[in-house]
Automatic annotation (TrEMBL), chains A, B:
<dbReference type="InterPro" id="IPR033749">
    <property type="entry name" value="Polyprenyl_synt_CS"/>
</dbReference>
<keyword id="KW-0479">Metal-binding</keyword>
<protein>
    <submittedName>
        <fullName>Polyprenyl synthetase family protein</fullName>
    </submittedName>
</protein>
<keyword id="KW-0460">Magnesium</keyword>
<dbReference type="InterPro" id="IPR008949">
    <property type="entry name" value="Isoprenoid_synthase_dom_sf"/>
</dbReference>
<dbReference type="Pfam" id="PF00348">
    <property type="entry name" value="polyprenyl_synt"/>
</dbReference>
<comment type="similarity">
    <text>Belongs to the FPP/GGPP synthase family.</text>
</comment>
<dbReference type="InterPro" id="IPR000092">
    <property type="entry name" value="Polyprenyl_synt"/>
</dbReference>
<keyword id="KW-0808">Transferase</keyword>
Amino acid sequence: MDTGIVTKPHDALANTLSEEMTAVNDLIRRRMASKHAPRIPEVTAHLVEAGGKRLRPMLTLAAARLCGYSGPFHIHLAATVEFIHTATLLHDDVVDESGQRRGRPTANLLWDNKSSVLVGDYLFARSFQLMVETGSLRVLDILANAAATIAEGEVLQLTASQNLATDEAVYLQVVRGKTAALFSAATEVGGVIAGAPQAQVQALFNYGDALGIAFQIADDLLDYTGDASATGKNVGDDFRERKLTLPVIKAVAQATPEELSFWKRTIEDGRQTPGDLETALAIMAKYGTLDATRADALDWAEKARLALAKLPQDPIRDMLEDLTDYVVSRLS
Amino acid sequence: MDTGIVTKPHDALANTLSEEMTAVNDLIRRRMASKHAPRIPEVTAHLVEAGGKRLRPMLTLAAARLCGYSGPFHIHLAATVEFIHTATLLHDDVVDESGQRRGRPTANLLWDNKSSVLVGDYLFARSFQLMVETGSLRVLDILANAAATIAEGEVLQLTASQNLATDEAVYLQVVRGKTAALFSAATEVGGVIAGAPQAQVQALFNYGDALGIAFQIADDLLDYTGDASATGKNVGDDFRERKLTLPVIKAVAQATPEELSFWKRTIEDGRQTPGDLETALAIMAKYGTLDATRADALDWAEKARLALAKLPQDPIRDMLEDLTDYVVSRLS
């Protein structure tokens, strides 16, 4: 797949929604301000201006437009979704003790854990105010449930990710929590605020859910195959941080006793020595788990594409369809 | 003041509301469960069962009953308020790197920072679901604003607490964020869910606000005067953690140049040596700042008492009035 082609869908959406995205960015900037605590915009500007793709707010805007919405509140919901995402990143930074995010040092290295936790809490509260302003209890219900799924998935990951008993079903649950729940809420609330019929709202949920899963599986695969300059992460970070992701889960499922003790030592017990990453890659190559993981990502991208069939035909729908290629394009 | 008398108001409220408090505790236990992440109830049970006074949920129940509420949702709101409180404690534990809470080791020493952050997020999300179930947008608005005030106050504290320029006005703002905002939201939503007239809702807010401020000032004072067995904290913790609280702020405002360098070294620069706590106490004694702080706490308790005048005469109102003594009773 040609990079010139695969970046198009994302850019096309960004161009089509550029006026609304400007309104979202303005709203984000206004609401992240704090009269009393200047530390807040310091910390958040670092993340919000760091050139994220704004994929999630764009999904909300696209869903609302696709369902014919003409009111002002999709802007609030798009900002809500980006605030929740940013808050999650801040809390992840504390959790992971990771040193890099989008190629820059994480907030908790520049400032400290305290700021990351509390400014994340502030952004959650701000997102909560924004959604209340829409006056839609159904939207609030969806986002409250998404928030619970996200937090539960993150906690589940704490225990599941270093446990070799974690299978693909548990992995999927973690992935729904850490990524897909916010994608599906982002698209679903776009339909709900537009007053779309239930079948369309359900289709938007299914699209966001499958797209998010494809996106996260692709991310986990790239951790083993990508290059740091493109992903902003170092190859093998997940292995070094003892995170059991799909490529390893598939290898563990087929492991010889000797391979099983390798995984036990490196992932469960965390006693890693130089050369272990290379051994891990060799075992994964032996069973073709990187290819199998790629196939799973493509399957979910296809599910996302199919979900769109129930939505009105529209240039935006075409762009959302192309986006299903985009999220897995880095795998090609 | 006789201890036998001053504990009465709290017990009287607990007895009067015992049936509803049982319902609140049941709801808390059900909603803190997680099918997928057993780590969650492990961490929260530690806090929720640790024998907290349940002061905040009791305030919500009392406010709703005082305003004649007969529906089911004050139970949800009381559980909401306790979840927010517990989530805040979990995030505070990360932040403070404190080793003790209510006389027990904090969750982040028993588990780790990761669990404290993410389980706190889970409780926030659960509280959010509970309040959405009430179906009251006004309640959601109040709690969203309270959440923002809490987080903003906590972030403000990060920068203000080690800065000698912090005056009593900034201190008050921090205190509203860390304590009074949840007290006032707890009482206000009780009135709102009961459909009370605005004058009563405002009176409930004023009561909770003043009670919370009295409570926090008392807490900050006890840090210098209390005994560890009663407060579950060590005397001088705030000083050692370089937290500028009211007794010190009052001393800084009157400091000689020599005293000012003492405060600068110990609080701003954090270079403390043995005997510094004793010196700090001697300076505070010289200006009578502990007595002045105690007088402030009593003033706020009196403001809380006066706010109740606008509410219906009722045994519960008498108990809320007695509670204004209770929160400062430890100072006598």
